[in-house]
Amino acid sequence: MKKLFAALCLLTAFAMVAAGCGGKKDTAGTDAKKVLKVGTEPTFAPFEFQEKDSKDFTGFDMELIRAIGKQMGMTVEIKNLGFDALIPSLNSGNIDAAIAGMSITEARKKAVTFSDSYYTSGLTIVVTKDNDAIKSLKDLEGKKIAVQIGTTGADKAASVPGAQVKRFNTNSEVFLELNNKNADAVIIDKPVAEYFLVREGKGKDKLVGDTMDAEPYGIAVKKDSKLAGEINKALAELKKNGEYNKIYEKWFGKAPKAN
Ligand code: GLN
Question: In sequence order, which ranges of 144-183 are alpha helices (DSSP H)?
């Protein structure tokens, strides 16, 4: 009798523990991860773009920010915005971070806080293949230059004496303007120009002149947000564990320069 009682007790205890464990597991499984709302402007291949007929956002920046989010234990949600809407959207709280091949500039640093730089870029000039008159920024004087609104390329174009600057929301429109011969040149980030020249621009356009000024890219967050520190920590970890290099090599076909 005693034995039976003991066995029953054990069974009851076992059932309770099992139920308890099961309950805990369920809670953990349904525990929603925190969401990191990230804004971008996706006509900037190979950094952020959508493959033809796809709604997914792909590219170096997209893979990097997803890896950063994962490192932070967060789910990344991408929002498609105009480039010039990114900084206002950070300040209004519509997004938590912006990654868009955005150069860290003194002017922007007044409005937002940047993470550590994750890529070093620079501007270049693109013209149509048959154009032999434009070889440098100086040759753009009095010419029509197509650029994306709110970019460092737009600022550079505006600094050219007598140039007519044609501003567009997307880089797709910028290149279209050049190839429709409605603009003499485009000023844009060099890696984006290079990517374009072996795809849609192949056989049509070419790159001229030297790369203008090194421009480091950073992830922008609301001014003084502590999120910048958390992003930097995750980025440093990805650089250490080889994940950053893996993503870099996938998109640029070579290892990043040591910095
Ligand atoms: N790097 C440039 C800038 O920050 C262009 C960025 C872009 O067009 N996405 O202005």
Answer: 152-158, 171-179
Q: Ligand 1 mean position to 149 CA, how many Å? A: 9
The total domain count for the chain is 2
In this predicted structure, what is the pLDDT of residue 6?
A: 55
Residues 204 and 245 in one domain: no
CATH number, residue 197: 3.40.190.10
Question: What atom in ligand 1 is closest to the CA of residue 121?
Answer: 1
Q: For position 238, what pLDDT does the model report?
A: 98
Q: Is the CB of 189 under 6 A from ligand 1?
A: yes
Per-run averaged pLDDT (10 residues), the chain, 259 residues: 53 48 42 88 98 95 98 98 98 98 98 98 98 97 98 98 98 98 98 97 96 95 98 98 98 85
CB contact set of 175 (below 8 Å; sequence gap of 6+): 126, 146, 186, 196, 200, 201, 205
How many angstroms separate the alpha carbon of residue 83 from the centre of ligand 1?
A: 8
Provide the domain limits for residue 62: 35-118+218-252
The verdict on 110 and 226 lying in the same domain is: yes
What is the helix (H) or strand (E) element at residue 48, kind and residue range? strand 48-49
Kindly state the tokens that stand for 237. 């970890």
Q: Evaluate whether residue 12 is within a structural domain.
A: no
252 CA to centre of ligand 1 in angstroms: 18
